[in-house]
């Protein structure tokens, strides 16, 4: 009997499978993933512990068996036959579906300059093992890209005793998703740890021993890692004739142009209330969209409407953000021990986002509260006052 088929055994795909079952769907559920490993938590790849890469499973084989969810690993889906309602695997017979979820995620962008194939990337467990193994004998590392993953890796490699240089083409680190003030504090912490951060530079080539910049400078590099963002895995959707718009375009119920095919997680550009289609690349988004997709695969009619939250860890510092933090902050809450939260309001004075930086998880509780306050009109004076408990604002909302 054709059932639910999910392509991609990452956070989103597994979460969708579990949710569909929890929502009462009692037909077959099959998850197809092209990695050999059992589904694992990707964020830990750039946050290893002294024992090496942390391999934390999203769900064990037993847990999936208990829910009668079939997981096929090391299986690549090569095509979707929409007329026959089947997915084609690299090996084995085509698999029929009643409902299909594309949770194909994203892949790391690679350096395209001469010698760029010397640069490793960090997306999979295999990538992580290769990088940390190479770091064991390397003295110097160049990381191309001062985004969250590049800088997390810089902290880790510096801690292992390597001389680390981070190269950024933009005018500042973390320009894509972290408010300038917090990015600047975090960069200072990296520099204190000995990381050299060069902004406004372009890589011309990679040689056996160096990364050569367009201005002619050569930076010694036993290990090179490109951390220059990701590309959504949309090829299956393209060849199936589905609309792509910086990701697989879906409506608020995560449905593509085809009512029986959904897409979610890093690969999906989801319609927001504003009408814009946005694609997020965070763990909580993959989980939250996976849950909505799972409900809808099981016959539900749920919309995705969760403010996207992310975290990132560098040395002893934790960074967290939620919602839209792209504009100028309307309020700043100084919380002692170098911890600070910035709040972002829209023209009507309603909270649209917050981002904070602090020791360990110092800002975590308040960012969680801020997530629940999104959409509430708030007084910037109260937001700035650390003596005014955010919970009070939540109770009053
Ligand atoms: C090193 C690293 C650190 C990160 N740290 C953080 C963090 O601190 N905080 C945070 O919020 N987010 C973090 N993220 C981002 C977060 O991990 C991702 O947003 C999340 O994993 C996306 O989940 P997903 O299921 O949508 O996609 P993925 O995890 O990419 O899973 C998709 C799966 O589908 C498979 N697939 C693709 N095509 C096919 C096919 N044709 N057939 C079969 N299988 C296929 C892929 O191989 C992959 O296994 C980090 C990511 C990385 C790489």
List the helices and strands and how they pair.
Layout: E1 3-7, H1 11-22, E2 29-32, H2 61-66, E3 69-72, E4 77-81, E5 86-89, E6 95-102, E7 106-108, H3 125-135, E8 140-144, H4 148-159, E9 163-168, H5 180-192, E10 196-199, E11 203-206, E12 210-213, E13 218-220, E14 223-226, E15 230-232, H6 235-239, E16 248-250, E17 261-263, E18 268-271, E19 277-278, H7 283-297, E20 309-314, E21 317-323, E22 331-334, E23 340-345, E24 351-359, H8 364-373, H9 380-384, H10 390-396
Parallel strand pairs: 1-2, 1-6, 2-3, 6-17, 8-9, 8-14, 9-10, 16-18
Antiparallel strand pairs: 4-5, 5-6, 7-15, 11-12, 12-13, 18-19, 20-21, 21-24, 22-23, 23-24
The protein binds flavin-adenine dinucleotide.
Flavin-adenine dinucleotide binds at residues 7-13, 32-35, 42-43, 45-46, 76-77, 103-106, 122-123, 149, 233, 236, 265-266, 281-284, 286, 310-312.
Which key features would you list for this structure?
397 residues; alpha/beta; FAD/NAD(P)-binding domain; Enolase-like, domain 1; 3 domains; seven-stranded mixed beta sheet; five-stranded antiparallel beta sheet; 24 strands; 28% strand; binds flavin-adenine dinucleotide
Total individual domains: 3
Q: Enumerate the distinct ligands.
A: flavin-adenine dinucleotide
* CATH architecture level-2 label of the largest domain: 3-Layer(bba) Sandwich
Sheet of most strands = 7 strands, mixed
Helix content: 10-25%
Q: Distance between termini?
A: 49 Å
The residue ranges in which pLDDT falls below 50 over 5 or more consecutive positions are: none
Give the amount of beta strand, in percent: 25-35%
CATH class call of the largest domain: Alpha Beta
Number of helices: 10
CATH superfamily of the largest domain: FAD/NAD(P)-binding domain
Radius of gyration: 22 Å
Which whole number gives the mean pLDDT? 96
Overall 3D form: globular
